[in-house]
Specification:
767 residues, four-stranded antiparallel beta sheet, elongated
Length: 767
């Protein structure tokens, strides 16, 4: 099932529950109104007593008089003194000053300002309690969205009330003025002391800054300029030179290792000469080979001439041709130079060859050792110089950082000192001006009209108190008096209708129908109640051919009601059968004088068909159409007999034979027989005596029927009295009498002067 279907099903349930709750509430209110109406004397008495008490209090209570004054609080636009936080809001300021007005300091000062004749409220108290007594009668209120404080005081004297309010206001104004001036003086002292401390710290920091500047020197530069300090520049350059020296040393050591490896392996060392030229230097290499610098210059000059000849030859050859003397001369000159150079190289090669074997290797190793030693010495010198310059640069940097820190601290102290001087000037300027201005806009005046006690308030409270106490007493009485107050209450609480109300009847002498009121006096007033019951059952919505009649407790008159109702049905022309199903105490059998006669128990225990057996055991009465089936001989198991299938067959025979069947059952709270019978008939009637039965027992009896699936047609209020004022009113005065059959009216029954109900004395005893 989807959610929409569930919601559609739950909605009627919620509406039903709501309607039930509303109906229950209305019923409860109606019941309370009914209780109030019935117990109205109690409520009226309680209201009268409360009115008397209120009048007594109003007459004897001391009179108190109020005096009021109003203060206007205006905020000045000035900086908050001795506070760096945001100024407080208007609401918090008004609340603060309202508390100041009622503070013990202000009240004590106000008490001291009062004259002896103005202390009428403090005469019987020691001076130490005067401020407390004043606080009890004083009130201060702030006006919402307005800067007003209303001050009021209640006193036994109008003049004293006005004097107290005036003294409190003057004390408040003096307190605010004194507090502000005292705070300003203290603020100035605190700010001055703090400014002196800041000045001393500032002077000390300035001295440190100057000493640091002298130590650093004028060459110190700001970091934002982008210029590097000279000491740092020297350290950087020495670091670069040291790095170059280290690289050269490493290169020489690598070449030396390569040459040593070549010597060890016996490789040709001439290939290392070209590489050594860039490491040990060209001049050193030429000298080591036995050549002079002039040879080198001569070779370079010849190479230059050869180059010039080739250039000249290339330039002139296209114009003169190969046989031209100039071209031939240039070729011969170039050949001569090439021959010279070739001869020189051959000589050099011979010299290199002369270094073969064990001469070139040691020479190269010696040259490399000398170069490495020279570079290492240079590296050590540069390392020492770099370390010295780096230490100087580090010290210079530390001094510059310290100088910058001191400069920032000096700037901070200067700003703090300037702020303190500005605050001192502000406090001094506004020392005589309070942050708020309080003005009295309503002076306290004596009022000769007493404000307490107030007549209307006392009257209203007395009325409410009387109604509450009277209602509570009436409700308690009604709870203790556990009886139904009216037919409406009975019907509402039980959930079934009240079918009829039968007044108390005098017992008739005799047996059989001679003891039945409806048969003996068919035109009596009491008989109409049974006709009303017959009509209610006949006109009901459901079938009422088979009816069980029971009661909540023994002695409620169920047998009498059953007999009279049966006679009423028979008088209406219905063939009626009364079955006495009270197999334990068969009252109907005794009433009809049929004790010892076979009946229901014999039908249920016999072997015959219940229809045949019952037809033989039914007894006819003097009234045509009314028969009785007695209970029969007592058996030890009445409940089992009634639950047997034969009893159902007996009821089926009775329904087929008679128009109306009435079953007299035992009390429902005593045994379960009535519930067993109730499930087999069309419905049940519960006989109740309101003056005797408790509400809870009657409700339990109704629940016993409904819980077992029996249809409860309604209840009958029996044994009502005409001497009470309770709500079972039923006038029996009708506007006509009963004819005598000859065209004349019989003597009319006199109407009852009072409503029908049970005796109040009996109700009180029961409660």
């Amino acid at each position: 099932m989807n959610s929409s279907t569930e919601n559609s099903e739950l909605q009627p349930l919620s509406d039903t529950a709501l309607n039930a709750a509303s109906s229950e509430l209305v019923h409860s209110l109606l019941r309370l109104l009914h209780i109030a109406q019935y117990r109205r004397k109690t409520i009226v008495q309680a209201v009268c007593v409360a009115a008397i008490l209120g009048a007594t209090y109003y007459a004897l209570a001391p009179r108190y008089y109020d005096s009021n004054a109003k203060l206007l609080i205006v905020h000045r636009n000035q900086d908050q003194i001795a506070s760096m936080a945001d100024p407080p809001s208007v609401d918090s300021t008004m609340a603060t000053h309202r508390e100041i007005v009622v503070s013990p300091v202000v009240l004590q000062q106000a008490v001291e300002q009062l004259l002896p004749e103005q202390r009428v409220d403090f005469q019987d108290a020691p001076p130490s309690n005067w401020a407390r007594i004043l606080a009890e009668g004083l009130s201060a209120r702030t006006t919402r969205k307005a800067n007003f404080i209303e001050v009021s005081y209640r006193s036994r004297s109008p003049e004293a009330a006005a004097a107290v309010v005036s003294a409190v206001i003057q004390s408040y104004l003096q307190f605010v003025d004194y507090t502000h001036k005292g705070s300003a003086s203290e603020a100035i002292a605190v700010l001055t002391h703090k400014s002196d401390q800041v000045a001393v710290s500032l002077a000390t920091k300035k001295d440190e800054l100057q000493a640091c500047r002298d130590r650093v020197g004028s060459l110190a530069l700001e970091p934002d300029t982008g210029i590097i300090e000279p000491a740092i520049q020297r350290a950087l350059k020495l670091n670069e030179a040291l790095s170059d020296a280290q690289q050269r040393r490493l290169k020489l050591e690598a070449s030396l290792a390569s040459i040593a490896e070549a010597i060890r392996k016996g490789e040709d060392l001439q290939q290392h000469l070209v590489a050594l030229e860039g490491v040990v230097g060209q001049q050193m290499l030429i000298s080591a080979l036995g050549l002079t610098p002039q040879d080198n210059v001569l070779i370079k000059a010849q190479e230059q001439k050869l180059l010039d000849a080739h250039v000249e030859l290339q330039r002139t050859a296209p114009y003169y041709g190969p046989a031209h003397p100039k071209v031939i001369e240039l070729k011969e000159r170039a050949q001569a130079i090439e021959q010279y150079l070739a001869s020189y190289r051959a000589q050099t090669t011979e010299r290199f060859a002369a270094f073969g074997g064990g001469q070139l290797g040691p020479l190269l190793v010696k040259m490399m050792d000398q170069s490495v030693a020279k570079v290492r010495q240079e590296e050590e010198r540069l390392q020492l110089a770099f370390d010295a310059e780096r230490a100087k640069a580090r010290a210079q940097t530390d001094d510059m950082q310290k100088m910058q820190d001191i400069e920032r601290e000096v700037a901070r102290l200067e700003a703090e000192y300037d702020s303190l001087i500005s605050k001192i000037a502000t406090v001094d300027t506004h020392q005589l001006q309070a942050p708020i201005q309080a003005t009295v806009v309503q002076e306290p005046l004596p009022d000769d009209i007493a404000d307490s006690p107030e007549l209307r308030l006392v009257g209203l409270l007395s009325l409410l108190f009387g109604l509450f106490v009277g209602g509570a007493i009436a409700y308690v009485q009604d709870v203790l008096d556990d009886r139904f107050a009216s037919p409406e209450e009975m019907s509402g609480q039980l959930g079934v209708p009240v079918l009829s109300m039968i007044r108390r009847m005098t017992a008739l002498e005799g047996t059989g129908l001679a003891s039945v009121q409806t048969y003996v006096s068919p035109n009596a007033v009491e008989t109409e109640a049974f006709r009303t019951l017959r009509t209610a059952l006949t006109l009901g919505t459901g079938a009422t051919d088979r009816i069980a009649i029971s009661s909540a407790e023994p002695g409620d008159g169920k047998t009498t009601v059953a007999a009279n109702l049966a006679v009423s049905f028979a008088q209406a022309g219905k063939k009626t059968l009364i079955i006495d199903a009270d197999l334990r105490k068969p009252g109907m059998t005794a009433m009809m004088g049929l004790k010892g006669r076979p009946g229901v128990t014999d039908v249920l225990n016999g072997r015959k068909n219940p229809a045949d057996a019952a037809a033989e055991l039914v007894h006819s009465t003097e009234l045509r159409g009314l028969d009785v089936l007695p209970a029969g001989l007592r058996r030890p198991n009445p409940a089992e007999l009634l639950a047997d299938q034969k009893f159902s067959e007996l009821l089926a025979w009775a329904e087929a034979t008679y128009d109306q069947v009435l079953v007299d059952c035992p009390p429902v709270l005593a045994v379960s027989d009535a519930q067993i019978v109730g499930r087999l008939v069309d419905g049940a009637i519960l006989i109740v005596q309101p003056q005797k039965n408790h509400r809870r027992l009657v409700a339990r009896a109704c629940h016993s029927f409904t819980a077992t699936g029996c249809t409860l047609l309604g209840v009958v209020a029996n044994g009502l009295s005409s001497e009470s004022e309770r709500g079972y009113g039923y006038g029996y005065g009708y506007g006509y009498g009963y004819g005598d059959g000859y065209g004349h009216d019989a003597e009319m029954e006199q109407p009852s002067k009072d409503v029908l109900a049970w005796e109040p004395s009996q109700r009180s005893k029961a409660a």
